């Protein structure tokens, strides 16, 4: 359960970083 939550958190963080990268650089 903890592992699954960690994976979800990591995926969420990556999606946020990707979105920020798209906004700043236009593409990632």
In short:
By secondary structure, the chain is mostly helical.
SSE blueprint and pairings:
Blueprint: H1 2-25
Observed structural traits:
single chain, 28 residues, mainly alpha, 86% helix, rod-shaped
Largest sheet features: none
Oligomeric grouping of the chains: single chain
Helix content: over 70%
Overall shape:
rod-shaped
Low-confidence stretches: none
Number of helices: 1
Content of β-strand: under 5%
Radius of gyration: 12 Å
Number of domains: 1
Overall mean pLDDT score? 84
Please count the beta strands (DSSP E, at least 2 residues each): 0
Helix-strand category: mainly alpha
Order of helices and strands: H
End-to-end C-alpha gap: 31 Å
Give your account of this protein's structure.
Helices cover 86% and strands 0% of the residues. It is built from 1 helix and no strands. The N and C termini lie far apart (31 Å). The chain is rod-shaped and about 35 Å long. It is an all-alpha fold. The chain has one domain.
């Amino acid at each position: 359960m903890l592992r699954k939550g960690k994976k979800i958190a990591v995926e969420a963080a990556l999606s946020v970083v990707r979105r920020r990268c798209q906004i700043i650089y236009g593409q990632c």
